C-alpha cells in the first residue's frame, strides 16, 4: 500500500510512504520494491528500496516528490522484484494501489487586490461596508441608473463632468469565472512556468482575491470535452479548488470550441442574466485559433458582461509582436462593440524555481 498527503501545492515537497507486506507462509530473502511514479513529479531520491521480508512481516520505505505542474496525479502500480537466496532474479509482480495527490496552483502573495479587480473588470459593489462606513474603491463617470447619492459634486465643480464613487462593501453581483486550457498551453514555456500553469495560477489567484471580499463566484474549467462547473465556489474556497483541480490533470485540455461556455449557466442551474460579470481567462494564441463564429456565440449569450482576461506571459517569444497587437485590437473591437472588454492582467504569475524548490 501507499500513503501520502492528499492535497499539495506546486513545488511543495511531498513524502510518499510505501508499505510491503509478506502475508505468505514463506520467507522472501530479498526483494526490490519500485513505486511507479507519474510524470511531472521531480524526484529528490529513488522511489525504490531493497527489502528482506520474513513471512508475516511488513517493510516500509519512503521517498519525496515535488510536483512541477498543478493538477491531479494518480499513482497506480507498485512493482515487486523477488530474488532467490543466491541473489538471482526469480519473479516480478506488479500490484495496483491507486493513490491520488491533488496539486493546487501556487498562490502565495500573488493575489489580486479588490481595487485592481474593480478597476479592471467593473464589478459593481453597492452599499455600506461591514463596519457601517463607506470605504472608497474608485471613481468612474456617471451612467444612467447610478445612485445619485454617490455623485462626487466636488469633482463635477472642478471638471464639469459627473463622476460617482464606488465603494468596497456589500457585493450584489455574482461573477462567473471560466478557464480555457488548450493542448498547446502545456507546451509553451517550461515547467513549472508553462502557459497552462500560468493560467491555472491566475484562476486560483482571481478566485481567492474575490473570496476575500465575499464576492459570489461560480467556476467553470474546461479540460476535456465538457466544462467542470462549481457553484458558489467562494462559500468554501478550499473545497471548491480541490474539486476543480482533482478534475485537471497535467496536459489535459479542452477539446471543444469556446462556444461550449455559452451553456455553462445552464449547467449551473442559472441564467446568463444572473451574472454581473463573466470573466474568461484565455490567452491570445488560443483566441487566434478559435473560429470567430464560436466566439460570437459567447458574446451573444453574455453580451456586455463578458471580459476576456489575458494572463501576463512572454507571448512575443512565440508570436510576432505585430501580429499580437493586431489580434488584441481585433478581439478588443469585437468585445467593445458588445459592451465587453479585453483586459491584460498586470500581475506576474511566474515562479522562480531551482531544483531545490521555489526561490
List the helices and strands and how they pair.
Elements: E1 2-4, E2 7-9, E3 14-21, E4 28-35, E5 41-43, E6 48-53, E7 58-67, E8 71-83, E9 89-104, H1 114-121, E10 135-141, H2 153-159, E11 163-168, E12 174-180, H3 195-212, E13 217-222, E14 227-230, H4 237-245, H5 264-268, E15 275-281, H6 284-289, H7 292-302, E16 306-310, H8 321-337, E17 341-344, E18 353-354, E19 357-358
Parallel strand pairs: 2-9, 12-13, 12-15, 15-16, 16-17
Antiparallel strand pairs: 1-3, 3-7, 4-6, 4-8, 5-7, 8-9, 10-11, 13-14, 18-19
Structural overview:
- With 359 residues, the chain is an alpha/beta fold.
- It has 3 domains: 2-104, Immunoglobulin-like (Sandwich); 114-122 and 173-354, Rossmann fold (3-Layer(aba) Sandwich), CATH 3.40.50; 135-168, no CATH class.
- It contains 8 helices and 19 strands.
- The strands form 5 sheets. The protein has a 6-stranded mixed β-sheet with strand order 14-13-12-15-16-17, with helices on both faces.
- The radius of gyration is 26 Å and the shape is elongated.
- Mean pLDDT reading: 84
Order of helices and strands: EEEEEEEEEHEHEEHEEHHEHHEHEEE
Whole-number tally of structural domains: 3
Return the CATH class of the largest domain: Alpha Beta
CATH overall fold name of the largest domain = Rossmann fold
Number of helices: 8
Taking pLDDT < 50 over at least 5 consecutive residues as the criterion, the unreliable ranges are 121-134
Q: How much helicity do the residues have?
A: 10-25%
Number of strands: 19
> Which CATH architecture of the largest domain would you pick?
3-Layer(aba) Sandwich
Q: Termini distance?
A: 34 Å
Radius of gyration equals: 26 Å
- Order of strands in the sheet with most strands: 14-13-12-15-16-17
Structural class: alpha/beta
Major sheet, described briefly? 6 strands, mixed
Q: Considering the protein shown, what is the CATH homologous superfamily of the largest domain?
A: von Willebrand factor, type A domain
